[in-house]
Amino acid sequence: MSWHVSELMADVSPWAFTPDLQYATKMVTLNMMVFWAAVLVLFWMCQRGQQPAMGEEFQVEQAPILSPVPSQET
Questions:
Q1: Buried b (16+ CB within 10 A) or exposed e, 45-74
Q2: Can you state the percent helix, strand and coil of the chain, rounding each to 5?
């Protein structure tokens, strides 16, 4: 795996290496945790905008009371 372009040109740079399984697992886990933390923060921020402002929860709107339609039977 020391090839730069799909077996056409060898990568001879000093930092070229194939990571071992432990290193790759740590990087994948770190990326997954950062991604899900960002998603959770995004949802948390969206939910904060939907909370009622201070004092709004005590206001009660008077809904119109619908009376039954009088019967036409006599």
A1: eeeeeeeeeeeeeeeeeeeeeeeeeeeeee
A2: 40, 5, 55
Q: In this prediction, what percent of the chain has a pLDDT beyond 70?
A: 62
Instruction: Output the pTM of the full model.
Output: 0.50
Share of the chain above pLDDT 90, in %: 32
Q: Rounded to a whole number, what is the largest CA-CA distance in the chain?
A: 101
Contact between 1 and 19 (Cβ < 8 Å): no
Q: What does the block give as tokens for 41?
A: 């923060």
Query: Checking phi first, is residue 7 left (phi over 0); if not, alpha (psi -120 to 50) or beta?
Result: left
Alpha carbon distance 11, 70 (integer Å): 89
Task: Specify the 3-state DSSP secondary structure of 27.
Answer: helix
